[in-house]
Specification:
The chain is an alpha/beta fold and 220 residues long. Helix content is 50%, strand content 17%. Bound molecules: cytidine-5'-monophosphate.
């Protein structure tokens, strides 16, 4: 099996690139953020306090997360319910970031991620794929972009969905999430030593994809 790990901060373009790359290579795209988001959604809906590790850990016993692929598109099931759209809500981004700092939550989702890579050729994106989940991945990319550029991209995504977004507010959210993801004790966001770093601030999606395809070819 071949695994391509793409890590980086929120809004760097990981999911767009990973999805397109997986389609080109005939691999499965695994969006691991969706898993943390579904735990965040469960806790938000069930009124489990997000900063209370004992409460979140206890709630895990009530949670079953599964991934399904419909025409190659990932769907996330939370206790049998398809939550793929709901987990995209902005408040769920922050909820995911909070629960993902807990080692119990990370351990809970570990096997699901590992098994996907054992059973399929994958392009997997997240924060700790190259460092923790798939340390032996054949290709590791660390994709970044400036906070302002990442905020502009998020704005465009929201606007495309007809959602209103305020630039300053989104920039604050992007910075807060970066801060939480980089400074947590377990599996912090960082570049794996053997990852190739790509700064996409001044690149469009096609250019990033072409650059990664070149790296993939070099490694194979
Ligand atoms: O990638 P996405 O923005 O959907 O991820 C939501 C949150 O889940 C991130 O801010 C991060 O805190 C967490 N996450 C993580 N490890 C991953 C993927 C996501 O901690 N592999």
């Amino acid at each position: 099996m071949t695994a391509i790990a793409i890590d980086g901060p929120a809004g760097a373009g990981k999911s767009t690139i990973a999805r397109a790359l997986a389609r080109k290579l005939g691999y499965i795209y695994v969006d691991t953020g969706a898993l943390y988001r579904s735990i965040g959604l469960y806790c938000t809906e069930a009124g489990v306090p997000l900063e209370d590790k004992a409460a979140v850990t206890a709630a895990l016993e009530q949670i079953r997360v599964e991934l399904r692929y419909v025409d190659g598109v990932q769907r996330v099931l939370l206790n049998g319910r398809d939550v793929s759209e709901e987990i995209r809500r902005p408040e769920i981004s922050l909820a995911a970031s909070s629960v993902s700092a807990m080692d119990t939550v990370r351990a809970f989702l570990f096997d699901l991620q590992r098994n996907m890579a054992l059973e399929h050729d994958v392009v997997m994106d997240g924060r700790d794929i190259g460092t923790v989940v798939l340390p032996d991945a054949q290709v590791k990319i660390y994709l970044t972009a400036s906070a302002e550029e990442r905020t502009r991209r998020r704005m465009a995504e929201y606007e495309a969905k007809g959602l209103h977004a305020d630039f300053e507010e989104l920039l604050r959210e992007v910075n807060l999430r970066d801060e939480q993801d980089k400074n947590r004790a377990v599996a912090p966001l960082r570049k794996a030593e053997d990852a190739v770093e790509l700064d996409s601030t001044c690149m469009n999606a096609e250019e990033v994809l072409a650059a990664i395809e070149t790296i993939v070819k070099e490694r194979n």
